[in-house]
Amino acid sequence: NAGVTQTPKFQVLKTGQSMTLQCAQDMNHEYMSWYRQDPGMGLRLIHYSVGAGITDQGEVPNGYNVSRSTTEDFPLRLLSAAPSQTSVYFCASGVGSYNEQFFGPGTRLTVL
Amino acid sequence: GENVEQHPSTLSVQEGDSAVIKCTYSDSASNYFPWYKQELGKRPQLIIDIRSNVGEKKDQRIAVTLNKTAKHFSLHITETQPEDSAVYFCADLTGNQFYFGTGTSLTVIP
Question: Per residue in A10-69, pLDDT tens?
Fold first, then answer.
């Protein structure tokens, strides 16, 4: 099993550009989530999904969209990148929310 | 919304000593409390978790205690080793959302 994979590992964007961060898992996990990690602020939940076709907002959803068309994939879209979105982004998955979450390796995003 | 506070933000201990990290939460509906370890440049990894119907859980040198009345939970690491040096995050689950503390940077001095 590859576990949770994320692409790209690094990305530099200009303000106003859009992009999609990819996340995939091969463990048949129902629960998937996206976090951003900023220095001194821990991990903050952006969006999450409890199964294919179901998504919901987390703590900091503004400026991000998600979709969950399959169990395996949970892409995160930045609609119009802003410098405030410079961060490290982690995707995670678990059998359910009430279980261990497995994190991907992260994507380091810089918005200029 | 839910708020998880974590203390201390930094902790230095001598090898072999114990380390304790404390977290408080605000929502009485929180029902699952995991702890994650994150080494520099790596992804967070679960080290121990506890559910709301349990007061204490131990796994070798690591233990977690939960006081639901006071709304706080703590991570205890005994006989610390240099490889325990990392950032530790507490979290709680409220509904289907995880809320994380701001992290504790633990340094174990050989």
Answer: 999 999 999 999 999 999 999 999 999 998 888 999 999 999 999 999 999 999 999 999
Would the CA dihedral through B30, B31, B37, B38 be positive or negative?
negative
C-alpha dihedral, B41 to B50 to B72 to A97, nearest 10°: 70
Considering only CB atoms, which chain A residues are within 8 Å of B90?
none
Name the residue among B7, B11, B6 with its Cα closest to residue B106. Answer: B11
- Nearest residue of A to residue B95 by CA position? A97
CB contacts, 8 Å: B31 with chain A: 98
Check if the beta carbon of residue A39 is closer than 8 Å to that of residue A28.
no
Query: Which residues fall within 8 angstroms of residue A39, CB to CB, at 6 or more apart?
Result: none
Q: How far is CA B11 from CA A43, B49, B88, in A?
A: 20, 21, 10
Closest residue, chain B, to A38 (C-alpha): B102
| Chains A, B: CB pairs < 8 Å | 53
DSSP bridge pairs for B11: B106
